[in-house]
Write a structure and sequence with these properties.
By secondary structure, the protein is an alpha/beta fold. It has one domain: TIM Barrel (Alpha-Beta Barrel). It is built from 11 helices and 7 strands. It has a 7-stranded parallel sheet with strand order 1-2-3-4-5-6-7. Helix 2 links the parallel strand 1 and strand 2.
């Protein structure tokens, strides 16, 4: 919940210029709902795609305050973030709700960015991998392997979001590798190879290179650093070690 419309326009115009021509990386921004339609026009001739920060699973109806997949597509969205830890923490999104949202997104041709991650308590008790694997399994329930190329899994350790603490590249890689192994167990299909597993949790320009050097980290879900055009552009232009 950052930036009003004017601030969003300024940020996107600067980012658009800074990453122009850097087409080897898929760049997606997720502005507030209030800015999506306006920004879609500014990005029409760029390679930056739009994502929403959430979705509701019904197509329409008496669900005051909610936004459907149909609505998101109509304003230019190609992606949608689902199950972010803040949605789970503050708005009660359960694993079952996340699954319903994933299914709704795919029905409308949107590409889900599905967030999973453990709390500090989970990590200290050695439950990181079991917690994350459970979240992934429940989020993807009912799906066929053929849709995995449309899905991005975002591992975001809750204890590292907005805290300045970052999972070490080795910690993140361990979880990413476990997620990838799980996907092959669940789907056993070549489509899994096209799916992406990205890392979120205090990603900054000074740690992106080392994170992206890990074999199973395919990208980043950027939080606070995305509010600074120059910082975000540097992340987009990462240089693997």
């Amino acid at each position: 919940m950052n930036t009003d419309l004017n601030q969003g326009v300024d940020l996107v115009l600067r980012l658009r210029d800074l990453v122009k021509g850097h087409t080897q990386v898929d760049c997606v921004i997720a502005p507030p709902f209030t800015a999506i339609h306006h920004l879609s026009h500014l990005l029409a001739d760029s390679h930056i795609d739009l994502s929403a920060q959430d979705i509701f699973w019904e197509k329409n109806g008496a669900y005051t305050g909610e936004i459907s997949g149909e609505m998101l597509v109509s304003v230019g969205c190609k992606y949608v973030i689902i199950g972010h830890s803040e949605r789970r923490q503050f708005f009660g999104d359960t694993d079952e709700a996340v699954n319903k949202k994933v299914l709704a997104a795919l029905r409308h041709g949107l590409k889900p960015i599905v967030c999973v991650g453990e709390s500090l308590e989970d990590r200290e008790k050695g439950k990181t991998l079991s917690k994350v694997r459970s979240q992934v399994t429940k989020a993807l329930a009912g799906l066929s392997g053929s849709v995995m190329r449309e899905i991005t899994i975002a591992y975001e350790p809750i204890w590292a979001i907005g805290t300045g603490r970052t999972a070490s590249p080795q910690q993140a890689e361990e979880v990413h590798n476990s997620i990838r192994e799980l996907l092959y167990e669940l789907f056993d299909t070549e489509a899994v190879r096209d799916g992406r597993i990205i890392y979120g949790g205090s990603v900054k320009s000074d740690n992106i290179d080392e994170l992206m050097a890990q074999p199973n980290i395919d990208g980043a879900l950027v939080g606070g650093a995305s509010l600074k055009a120059e910082e975000f552009a540097r992340i987009v232009k990462f240089q693997p070690l």
